[in-house]
Amino acid sequence: MGxxxxxxxxxxxITTSNGNTYSPTFANxxxxxxxxxxxxxxxxxxxxTGNTFYVPKTVRKWVKLPGGMDFTGDAQITLNPYVHLEMxxxxxxxxxxxHAVLMKIGSKITNGTITASHNVGGPATWDxxxxxxxxxxxxxxxxxxxxxDMFLIGQVNxxxxxxxxxxxxxxxxxxxxxxxxxYAIRAKNVYIERCIxxxxxxxxxxxxSNSINDCxxxxxxxxxxxxxxxxxxxxxxSVDGNMFLNCVVEGGTKWHATYGTSLIGVSIxxxxxxxxxxxxxxxxxxxxxGGPTTALVIDANASQTLVIGRGFKSTTFDYFTDAGVDNTxxxxxxxxxxxxxxxxxxxxxxxxxxxxxxxxGHTPSVVIATPSVASEMVSVTSIGAxxxxxxxxxxxxxxxxxxxxxWRAMRSL
Length: 413
Prior knowledge:
The protein is mainly β.
């Protein structure tokens, strides 16, 4: 698909790629977008159904806002298929309980701010999203729907007040109203703060086996959100194969002290999602002072997930729980490398009846232990979520020697 980039020069009017211009008002943003038409079905042919694609007959078109302006309005902006909204450093201010921007297949939004903050005229209450991407009853949502260089701020009366933050930064949602999937969403260079959810991927479908997968989130800073990154599937449908690269989730001491809420940095409920250079920050400084003790949660239904980063472990606490199988968490902090896996092993010096800490975070299905002293036997007598107990015996039944045992703990797939 070809693409014509919007011009770089400064403009004072809303401009479009088809040559139209509009005065810089909130209502005219949607009028300008609608003037470009529905690029996904221009031929007028029967609309396809199921997991099929709209194929545009033209290149992606654009709407460009004047630079550095505030656009305040009381309606949702809907980005039609294959339309690029270039915000040019301007700001959209949400004033009602609605999603600020709804993105359809192949659309793109870049270089601006979306906020529902009461401090700049936002609503008194708000539980919607700055950017909302739903599934579509007609098509598979994808074709590189893009979010780039954005600042997203949730709803708050005043940073120092006791009002909890509200709303969501980026929300991908699938339910039974649609037959299609959400996939291949690309988002990069985004700052999100003061939301209940920073990034929220939720597959709520039941009758339909919809999926949210193969999405890319790169270079994110999520600050002071009640939940940083949440991958959710109440009905056990697919939210998998998504990639998160170079993401920082900061809890914030002031946020926790003000609102006293136990929060989650990242929560994963489904399979095979990949996090590389994930940094969960400020969790260790507030434990016991209203802050959370869990920065990373992996649900029992999640497997084959790899998380590489820091902020999941300190010398005192493990700031994660892993109830799933075949997941790996690699924590790198202050020169120390800690690896948590559903298949772990080690060498431990232990006496007869002693305990060995395996560090899996859940109870293994099998533990295998081998002695290092000839003519002695080792048996595993009990297995728990953090430790297993061993019996070391000589062949005459007497207690064995304190020694190194070589062990491996595994959880069945």
